[in-house]
């Protein structure tokens, strides 16, 4: 995501590109005018024939007032005014400065990109360290939790075993009591049966005695 600084840098770079293009166009215009020999002579050219653009050039470059001594013969034979050469030199210097500035901005952008990548890498490293720290904390917490649960289970297991032993002992005692009761009942049944047998024998004897009479 672009930041305010990135948008400002792109805006500055766009402005510099526009200014470079404008200066290059102006430089080409001066060169073409020099080649065609379109220079202004204040002594021979009436003021009403001077175009507004030439009028501005005349005020900016007073050395054109004496073109006869300040002209330069190019290789093709056309005359180039000193003012045109000075303007071209100025444009070249400005173009050089603008190019240098553009290079500086590109270098700054590269440095910023490098800084951003370094910061991103640092953030990733910090995030990794933080994640490891949190994982270690979570691992320690889970370990403590499971140790507590294991301890609780051991306690519950001991209680359950003790309870099972107690229940087994109670069941054994109940079985002993039941066996004792069963023995008593069997003895009582045996005594009752014995009494019944004696009664039967007594009845038989009585019947015999009665039958003899």
Automatic annotation (TrEMBL):
Comp. bias intervals (Basic and acidic residues): 1-16, 50-59
Coiled-coil annotated spans: 119-148
Location of region: Disordered: 1-20, 34-82
Domain of life from the UniProt record: Eukaryota
Keywords carried by this UniProt record: Coiled coil
Record's compositionally biased regions (Polar residues): 67-82
Stated name of the protein: Uncharacterized protein
Species of provenance: Dreissena polymorpha
